[in-house]
Amino acid sequence: MTILDGKKVSNDIKNEIADQVKAMVAKGEKVPHLAAILVGSDGASMTYVNAKVKACEKIGFNSTLIELPEYTSEDELLQKINELNTNDDIDGFIVQLPLPDQIDEQKVLMAIHPDKDVDGFHPTNVGRMALDLPTFLPATPYGIMELLERYQIETSGKNVVVMGRSHIVGRPMSILMSQKRKAGDATVTVVHSRSKNLADITREADIIVAAIGISEFLTGDMVKEDVVVIDVGITRVPDATKANGYRLAGDVHFESVSKKASYITPVPGGVGPMTIAMLLKNTLLSRERRNQN
Ligand code: GUN
């Protein structure tokens, strides 16, 4: 069994990007600038956004963190988005999800200019992804594709089961892996909360992408020998033996599944760091595109 070391691979990617930034500086070019909007003070979201900003600093990007209070209105957020859309200094920006109830997520994602949508969530970019046109790929699926590619895991003709149909992971993942591309060409099945005989389907899988948001849902009896397992889940599970009172768990029951798997991602240190690296890669791409225009 081989651990798919997302931490190591993401560091490789970040070092590659940092080298490109150094070359930009040497040529007197402007370095990439990523902005992030965080509404409210959800603990997990704060952790993710701070990690994104810290990663920017480490590789030489400029970054701006905009923190808005929980009670921010939809109009106020849309106005902030419009400022970033028109601010020529910003190459790309994200609005961290989930948003408070008073704000319509779809309206917000549609307000972000597609050319600055480094999360790849705008309908224009989702459509371009579905048509296999150049775009910003959503960071988590993009990170998984990159991880499969760098570990040279064969996907062509393989049975892939994607567990979950969310707009930010399951759906794009299923589209990308069925496409004619690196880490693609697979036969993809999507299962979700209404699927019947789920374990019969996962047991046929050569590769499983678990993104259902239920901790330790996929267990050893649900997979076949030598399966490749990508765990997208990350939840805090109460654990009295830990100083902070919790441990992080994925959607995969690691202990039982890792006994049968040929490759598996850990939680933490698997998909999470890859997501951040690919967001940076999209921001670099945006800067390069803007330099060309
Ligand atoms: N919330 C969970 N994952 C993501 C992500 O990739 N981008 C944003 N903006 N919010 C998220």
TrEMBL record:
Q: What is its EC number?
A: 1.5.1.5, 3.5.4.9
List of residues binding NADP(+): G164, R165, S166, I234
Indicate yes or no for the key word NADP. Answer: yes
Report TM segments.
Answer: none
Name the pathway it acts in. Answer: One-carbon metabolism; tetrahydrofolate interconversion
Q: Which reaction does it catalyse?
A: (6R)-5,10-methenyltetrahydrofolate + H2O = (6R)-10-formyltetrahydrofolate + H(+); (6R)-5,10-methylene-5,6,7,8-tetrahydrofolate + NADP(+) = (6R)-5,10-methenyltetrahydrofolate + NADPH
Question: What's the superkingdom here?
Answer: Bacteria
One biological process term in Gene Ontology? purine nucleotide biosynthetic process
Q: Indicate the segments forming the Tetrahydrofolate dehydrogenase/cyclohydrolase catalytic domain, all copies.
A: 4-119
List cellular component terms (GO). Answer: cytosol
The record, for Pfam families, names: THF_DHG_CYH, THF_DHG_CYH_C
Which PANTHER family does the record associate with it? C-1-TETRAHYDROFOLATE SYNTHASE, CYTOPLASMIC (PTHR48099:SF5), C-1-TETRAHYDROFOLATE SYNTHASE, CYTOPLASMIC-RELATED (PTHR48099)
| UniProt similarity note | Belongs to the tetrahydrofolate dehydrogenase/cyclohydrolase family.
Tell me the function of this protein: Catalyzes the oxidation of 5,10-methylenetetrahydrofolate to 5,10-methenyltetrahydrofolate and then the hydrolysis of 5,10-methenyltetrahydrofolate to 10-formyltetrahydrofolate.
Q: What is this protein called?
A: Bifunctional protein FolD
Q: Which organism is it from?
A: Siansivirga zeaxanthinifaciens CC-SAMT-1
